[in-house]
Amino acid sequence: MQYRAEIDGLRAIAVLSVIIFHAGLESLSGGFVGVDVFYVISGYLITRILVSDTEKGTFSFSEFYLRRIKRLMPAALVVILVTLASFSLILSPASYYELAKSAVASIFFIANFWFMENAGYFDTSTQIAPLVHMWSLAIEEQFYIIHPFIIVCLTRCFGINKAKLALLTLFATSFVASVALSEFYPDFAFYMLPTRAWELALGALIVFYPLTLTKKTATGVAALSAITLVTSFFIIHHNNIYPGYLALLPTASTFLLIQACHQENIIKRLLSLKALVFVGKISYSAYLWHWPIVVFYRIYINQRAFNVYEVVALTCVTLIVAFLSWKYIEERFRRPQYSVKTVYKNAGFAYVGLLSICVVILSTKGLPERFSDRVAGFTDKREMRKISCTNQLKLIDQIDETFCTVGDDWHSSDLRVVIWGDSHSQHWASILHSVSSGKSIAIAIAPRKCPAYIDNQLVRSYYPKYPRFNEDCKTRNTHTIEWINQSDDIDAVIFASAWSIQTLKLYNEEFPNNKQDIADELKDQAIGAHLTVQGLTATIQKIKKLPILLLSDVPRPNRDLNECRFAEEQSLFRQQCQQNYHYLDYDTVLKWHKITDNALISVADTFSRVSVIVPSQHLCAEGQCKTIINNQLIYRDEHHLRRNLMPATNIKIAEMLALDRYLSSLKH
């Protein structure tokens, strides 16, 4: 088959867009769509090989998969090994434990399943996940398992036309699924083969349906497609619904570029420039290495934004490492002198070795022996999440789960309180336990998961990871109100939620959801605050005459302060956090909380039985908000409190917020 240099040039454009995007160049907001370009190219090249070998009668499944293994596995396994080794120096035990799990998924080319279940591609946590980029390779490998059977078997058994029909059906079905699911199941649509297969199939269709273009037409099509492709790197944004319709911009442009560049034209000549072709040849290694390099540096400098010099440096380092990887790993293992037996034997040894390393990391929960017990103590996220429940009770008949109670025994206590909300109701558990124990006060954390005001009519929340979130919350909240109203045991209710972030997600028919566009946060906050007032007012009116406390957000760090402290404890000359993590800037906190806090205050002013506690009014003074109390960092992550604080620290926080006085007042 004739070598097409311009396709390597196109690969170079794709990989550079991804690298520069991940290195943090904000203006290249859609650089991640370079992956879509790769899919179209891969679909085209693989199908061209399959059709050519089938027509010549030389196709062999074993030979095909052997070539794929030799092409993809050596560099990928080396990257995983080096990533595990290098990140052992800078990752906390909890983070290293998660890395090992993602490494196992990557080894078996199912990383897309792992990350779909555990993190959205643009989530904050994903930006420091060293192997998240392996999701796209997993999709390609899964496609390579299926695609030869579609092309070769159908062609041999039923003729080429049936293979074409099957490919068209695959393209259409997958594209419709992508469009239909991208808004409501965004993680599935982004990470899964059924909603990505159409991009690879689009490349395959080039082989079966080549366009016959005049030289003039081909030049025009190529130029227009190149402009559209480059434009997509700048106009697509991670807040857009993606892939969906928008993925047509980069994929259709790539489809037309490959078609038009069959003819000699200026775009073909530009894409065939030696520098671009060289980068294209090393693009696989460049893609593999770029993300661990970027993430290592990001963690090393404590996750501050990169400047333009760092973006350039990271890109250059990636290309240098990629060249070495291509020359000494890719090219070496591609050589035909390696027999099938040798390839599979070496692959087996590599798999067993890597899996053994991962098993050790997983069995030890992230090799905490790398650091002192004190360091491991404030980096263990599992310990920070634990709740010591006094009781586990099935309190609400219609909700099939047990609920944690803290403080004293629920059945024998004089005062019984319900704290109701999402994960920000749970993070108060240890504080409430410390301040209630021994005082005949019991507090039930029930129900969790849903803000109390979500009713799927007056107030809805945009939560694409859980498409039935609003319906389920309506059901749970309705049953909770019924339980509170019918129970003689409940003396008060506390509403707690991630109020400030929820305001960015709220909508209803009057204020429809428009999250496919880049969020206007001030506008969204104002709308969300309005809907919060409406929703809370309606919910409170449905509850019998009980005292109600609105517990607002603690000041949000919006960064993991434990990583700052962890960096201080390491001897790697790591750059410390730019900001003093002992305090948060009050003005920054106000930007997040002021609108929401005012909304809760206005609700409390409406009802004589409703009180409000605004933590920022008590934890902040002289332009700073405390993050360390009793010499303990009180945060678990970017916005949750730790649940494993010492009792004295819990009591101190409760006293600062006057939460202890509020609970005591309920007994009188």
From TrEMBL:
Keywords: Acyltransferase, Hydrolase, Membrane, Transferase, Transmembrane, Transmembrane helix. The lineage of its organism: Bacteria, Pseudomonadati, Pseudomonadota, Gammaproteobacteria, Alteromonadales. GO terms for cellular component: membrane. This is Peptidoglycan/LPS O-acetylase OafA/YrhL, contains acyltransferase and SGNH-hydrolase domains. The chain crosses the membrane at residues 7-25, 31-51, 72-90, 165-182, 188-211, 218-236, 242-261, 282-300, 306-326, 347-364. Residues 5-325 form the Acyltransferase domain. GO terms for molecular function: acyltransferase activity, transferring groups other than amino-acyl groups; hydrolase activity. Residues 402-641 form the SGNH domain. GO terms for biological process: lipopolysaccharide biosynthetic process.
